[in-house]
Structures are given as C-alpha cells and as structure tokens.
Amino acid sequence: MKVTVIGAGNVGATTAMRIAQMDVCREVVLVDVVPGRAAGLALDLNQSAPIERFRTRLTGTETYRATANSDVIVMTAGRPRAPGMSRLDLLLVNAAVVRDCVAQAAAQSPFAILIVVTNPLDEMTHLAWRTSGFDERRVMGMAGGLDSARLRWFLADLAGVAPPDVEAMTLGSHGETMVPLPGRATIEGTPATRIFDPATLAGVFEHTRAGGAEIVALLRTGSAYYAPASATAVMVRAILEDRRELHPVCCRLRGEFGIDGAFVGVPAVLSRRGVEEVRELDLEPGELAALREAAAAVRQKCAELEEALARG
Ligand code: APR
Fold first, then answer.
1. Quick check: 216 and 223 in contact, CB under 8 A?
2. 231 close to 142: Cβ distance less than 8 angstroms
3. Mean of pLDDT values over 250-274
4. pLDDT tens across 205-258, in order?
5. CA gyration radius for the chain?
6. Does 190 have pLDDT greater than 80?
7. Contact call for residues 75 and 102 (beta carbons, < 8 A)
8. Facing residues of 171 across strands?
C-alpha cells in the first residue's frame, strides 16, 4: 500500500504524519515544489518512527517518479489567499497548481483514489476529476469530515462532555452552503434537539460555518491544519483498509438526493473502490432543500471556473 501526499505544507506534512502513525500503508511519498522541503520533512518524520513505533516509510521528493503506483493520492498543494487577492485570483492560482499536480500524479498512478483538500474545495475537486480522467467514484474532496468534527467539538464543549461522545454530521459544502443535520446530532446518545433549544443549536451551526475563518483570524498567517489532516487521514484509512465506513465526503452525484452531475458533500461509504455508495439518508425536507441549494451553488461556481479557464 502506498499513499502520495502532494504539498508538504502544514496540511500535507501533518496528514503524512497522521497516516504514518496509523501504520496503514508501507510508504507515504510527500511531494513539494520547494527544493528539499519534502525530503527534509520525510527524514524528520522517519526519525520519529522508532519513538512512535510505526513502520510506514516516508519519502520526500520534488518530482512524481517516486509516486508511481500509489493506491491513494492526497492533493493539498496550493497557495493561501494573499492580501489584495480576489476569490477569483486565488481560484485561478490554485486551479493551475491542481491541474499541474493532478495531471502528473494521475499519470504515475492511473488506478489511484484521489482525495482533494486544496481550497476552494468543491471547484478544486471538480477540476481534479476533470484533469485526472478518473472515474467519478475515485475522486472525492475532504470537507464534511472537518466540518462535522468542528460541530462535534463545539457541541461537546457546550454540553461539557468528551468530544468522542458527540455524534453529528454536516453535508453540503464548506462555508455558507454547509448543511448541518440537527436531527442526527446526539450527545452521549441523547438527541441534541432535546438538550439545546433551536436558537442555541442555530448558534452552534453558525459557529461551525465560520470555524475555519475563526482560526485564520487567530493565526493571522495560514489556516487550520491539525483537524483537516485528521479528517483526511481517516478517509485514507477507510479506503486502504476497505472499511466500508460512512463519511461525509464531497463527491459527484448521479441523481442521488435528486442532484445530478455536481460535486457536493454527502454521506458516502468509503472502500478500496473509493466511493462505494452514496447513502441517501432520509433527510428532513428543509435539509434536502438546503443540500440541493448547495449543489446548485457549486455547479454555478464550477461553471464560472470553467469559463475563466477557457478564457485563459
Ligand atoms: N506542486 C507541489 N507543491 C506545491 C505546488 C506545486 N505546484 N504549489 C505549492 N505547493 C506547496 C507549497 O510549497 C507548500 O509547501 O503546497 C504547500 C502548501 O502549504 P501551506 O502554504 O502550508 O498551506 P496549507 O496550510 O498546507 O494548506 C494547503 O489545504 O486546507 C487547504 O485551504 C488550504 O488550499 C489550502 C491547502
């Protein structure tokens, strides 16, 4: 088993570390354009292996030859938004990075499963799918796992319980179009709707929606990476171990939930085949409407991206 992580920045390096510590594959290959960066971090991580007691070997490189025949490719490379940069500027910069990296990685590993983490997530996942030429079930984006974890943490904090004792799921996408599922949130097994009033729950959902921005404002430079890396690593593990585990995943729908041809966050069973199945949970009418709205927003953003790319 082999995993390639493209981008050895905060998210990529931490994801590589989490995967290595899970000991679910023989090798993790880190790729970065900055000379020596991936090789240096891989060496540092390898030297933690005797202490952390993992057997996975890390390799760092600036080219794609060493990534050949990977089972999973995680795409994290990209630029953060710089002051004065518009959303479209960032979109075009990262689109160029995604096209370049994914084309090279996909050529080396034509049977891999591709997980996109680079933002803006939905557009980058769509573009990675188009660039790779992979079957849509082998291309997915990481967003829902992170948003769900943030929601679980905020609920746990508010209720004064341990985070693993809270279950909750968000669908849709990052940011404004996140779709929380209040009916599925439980705190130590009790429905969250029986513990908190609707206004309190709405406040927690809003906090979750703005969860990434809150961290960016505190850090001043850079964005979150510990929770994004954890959320990505568990997807990798579910795939490598053929777990058939349910994860909220950004994937291309083919009529599920009445949505066709758009990438949006939905509950998906992950296996060695990638997205084994999209689980059409029984959503409340309001949740379903919000999911369809999120899909329409993504479709519109992807159309804008395609137009901008066609204009050059
Ligand atoms: N090929 C390979 N690596 C590249 C390329 C490229 N063409 N372009 C940039 N990189 C690398 C950079 O050298 C850097 O090491 O991508 C890395 C990005 O790292 P950070 O700036 O630390 O960003 P990070 O916090 O890791 O976020 C990466 O994940 O969560 C998202 O919004 C986030 O889109 C961002 C991505």
1. yes
2. yes
3. 97
4. 999 999 998 998 899 888 999 999 999 999 999 999 999 999 999 999 999 999
5. 19
6. yes
7. yes
8. 179
| Nearest partner of 119 among 89, 78, 170, 150, judged by Cα | 78
Quote the pLDDT of residue 90: 82
Peptide bond before residue 267 is cis, with ω within 30 degrees of 0: no
Counting residues of the chain whose pLDDT is more than 90, the rounded percentage is 87
C-alpha distance across the termini of the chain, in Å: 38
Which residues have CB under 6 Å of ligand 1?
A: 6-12, 31-34, 37, 76-78, 80, 97, 100-101, 117-119, 222-223, 225, 228
The domains located in the chain, with CATH, are 2-141 (3.40.50.720)
Please tell me the total number of residues recorded for the chain in this structure: 312
Supply the residue whose CA is at minimum distance from atom 7 of ligand 1. Answer: 97
Phi, psi of 250 (to 5 degrees): -80, 110
What are the pLDDT digits (tens) for 79-92? 877 767 777 788 89
Atom of ligand 1 nearest to the CA of 94: 34
- Whether residue 218 contacts residue 203, with contact meaning beta carbons closer than 8 Å, is answered with no
Tell me how far apart the alpha carbons of residues 252 and 264 are, in angstroms, rounded to a whole number.
Answer: 7
Beta strands 139-141 and 113-116: pairing type?
parallel
> What mean pLDDT do residues 275-288 have?
95
Tokens of residue 56, six digits: 């996975």
Residues that are catalytic: 174
> What predicted TM-score, i.e. pTM, was given to this entire model?
0.97
Q: How many CB atoms lie within 10 A of CB 311?
A: 7
